Amino acid sequence: MVLWFAEAVTGTMPTALITGITGQDGAYLSQFLLERGYAVHGLLRRSASADVILERLRWLGLVDRVTLHDGDLTDLSAMLRIVQAVQPDEVYNLAAQSFVHASWQQPLLTGTVTGLGAVTMLEAVRIARPQARFYQASSSEMFGKIQQERQTERTPFYPRSPYAAAKLYAHWMTVNYRESFGMHASSGILFNHESPLRGIEFVTRKITDGVARIRLGLARELKLGNLEAKRDWGHAQDFVRAMWLMLQQEVPDDYVIATGRTTSIADFCALAFGYAGLNWQEFVRTDASLLRPAEVDVLHGDPSKARDRLGWAPSATLEELAAEMVEADLARHRARSSLVMPTAESMRAARA
Ligand code: NDP
Ligand code: GDR
Fold this sequence. Notes:
By secondary structure, this protein is of the alpha/beta class.
């Protein structure tokens, strides 16, 4: 087996701590790290619906393979206790209030969790485990009202939502901790990435879920907001690999992670409905209540730096991504329960 950075330094298998482990990226990152022999620890905030919260880890068959620690990202004492106990080699700060639309209704919460929460984690690491390598989940939303047609690490930021403003604060604080304290802290400026584990409120998953419902006769239409917005969508599994690659570099830095292809919401509808043999224009309706107070019209990343320095490139096409998501949603609805999802393994078996 190949020696990773931490193993090469300490002679033991590396330990990772992931905030946001129950989210889309946290689940895939856990899988990626476990496959490489890491001990994976994660932050779990207390919920009355713990069974549902663990669904993504369960889908990937990982619930019993990771160690979960109770705590909220906004609670410095808890973060300190966890970092002290785990003594991680690598810390991935993925936890956030991550839904842009909700950030106008909850600007203070978004600022507290998505912005200050990152600093809480940076502080915990600086105090309790300063030699750990730190990853911050920055976002292409920071480019907002774009200042360059293709966005790179050098493109000026122009956030358009409370979420983006909070991410920008967290981004600059990560840079600041790197420069002030010499921490190995890197930011990944990730463009949209999706998967069957994407939250249902985000547009791609809302569309593939809608396709599945319509295909199975459970719904007749799908209501969406702005169909003209364009996004640079990739597969979450490709994107978590980029996070890890950043922390294997000798020198910490910031990287744009994108596919370099941008597509409108309408064109994604055409792909997803088309995969199920449906004409999207017969089923999609627009609903003004789903429009945002300020929109990010187009995002189109240039991942040249990540390609050249990390050797990173996306592997999945948008067509493959849409097909995988529609298949997963069809399987979920066929299972007839929102609480009992089939596992990836059982889906493979059913198809075989
Ligand atoms: P998700 O919304 O799927 O996951 C968010 C995670 O944060 C969940 O595990 C959630 O826990 C956790 N969380 C939220 N609030 C708190 C809190 N107060 N304390 C502890 N944990 C909390 O996001 P993704 O996996 O899609 O994204 C991961 C990160 O990357 C986020 O920071 C997001 O903003 C950022 N990002 C995502 C992109 C994308 O396209 N997916 C692109 C660029 C950046 P719970 O399950 O309990 O709700
Ligand atoms: P985004 O993702 O805001 O880019 O943030 P989302 O899928 O929510 O929206 C993408 C675009 O689709 C338009 N849209 C709709 N969006 C939603 N959610 N629901 C609809 O019905 C709908 N109709 C049209 C939106 O207006 C927007 O233009 C995601 C999150 O993962 C962030 O955390 C992350 O930082 C960024 O991606 C990069």
